[in-house]
Amino acid sequence: MDINYELYKVFYYVATTLSFSEASKQLFISQSAVSQSIKALEKKLDQTLFIRSTKRVQLTPEGEILLRHVEPAMNLIKRGEAQLTDSATSNGQIRIGASDTICRYFLVPYLEKFHKEFPNAHIKVTNQTSLKCVELLENGQVDLIVINYPNSNLSNLFSLKKIAKFQDVFVANHTFSELNGKKISLKELLDYPILMLDRHSTTSEFLHHLFQQHQLDLVPEIELSSNDLLIDLARIGLGIAFLPDYCISQKTDDLFFVETKELLPSRELAIVHNNRVPVSKMTQEFLNYFEEVSAS
């Protein structure tokens, strides 16, 4: 099917803004031209892509399917343009996806080093869970991601390098002092309120899977999207928090580690990029920081 790229471009802007007027502003064309382009695309595809009303624009299921394919293509084109521009200047950019926790407790020194070496380069960091970061990479919205591993969303289309090992831990305050210095089973742990990340995280997947391996059903007391908030709630005695050790090592003054009889497997941090797409000069410079890093 021979369809002009410009029609897909117009579709992308309408689909991502859900506004014909906003799309016309971003494309620097009239709203009428936007509307005509969408009608032409719908006619060529023989599909209705948008539900139009006086108050809003909404994607149809067919429009959502098309967007899932057009968006990565648009991002690849933008990325190619950016790389060509970067090669002609001393600036350039790097787009990184990582969770708040990984950014704060692991990436900051590397970002500082990169900024000092390439002060004119633009750094964009998008904070999402490790699971969501894979989607960002698939859609071409970031150049690389730093994530917790294992990660159920990863495919063999990505180049992955393990860069650090870490251990997940349970922590509590004096409210649960009877557990200090004592090893308890995972089954016994279920008698206490568990604080953990929500289901949309690799850490939650990991802990639920661990309990399932022991034929136990984990029902957390509180689920949050922030490890720092979990630490805060553990500090005031709301429960026993489960989180990676790299974000608690400097905060153990009023908390203690709750040890379990069962051995908790270690996990790793990994840096990942799409091996189907050439990396930019700035992205490669950042990846080089981890060439000598190995999981230990």
Output the keywords:
alpha/beta, 10 helices, 296 residues, Arc Repressor Mutant, subunit A, D-Maltodextrin-Binding Protein, domain 2, 6-stranded mixed β-sheet, 42% helix
Average per-residue pLDDT, rounded, comes to 89
The structural domain count equals 3
Summarize the amount of helix as a percent range.
Answer: 40-55%
- Main β-sheet, in a few words? 6 strands, mixed
Secondary structure tally: strands: 13
Main structural class = alpha/beta
Helical stretch tally: 10
The CATH superfamily of the largest domain turns out to be: Periplasmic binding protein-like II
What's a concise summary of this model?
Helices cover 42% and strands 22% of the residues. It is α/β, with parallel strands linked by helices.
Report what the structure shows.
The chain has 296 residues and is an alpha/beta fold. The chain folds into three domains: 73 residues, Orthogonal Bundle (Arc Repressor Mutant, subunit A); 97 residues, D-Maltodextrin-Binding Protein, domain 2 (3-Layer(aba) Sandwich), CATH 3.40.190.10; 98 residues, Periplasmic binding protein-like II (D-Maltodextrin-Binding Protein, domain 2, 3-Layer(aba) Sandwich). The protein is 42% helix and 22% strand. It contains ten helices and 13 strands. The strands form three sheets. A six-stranded mixed β-sheet has the order 8-12-7-11-9-10, sandwiched between helices. Helix 1 packs across helix 2, helix 1 crosses helix 3 and helix 2 crosses helix 3. The longest helix is centred in the first third of the chain and has 27 residues. It starts with a helix and ends in an 8-residue tail after the last helix. The mean pLDDT is 89.
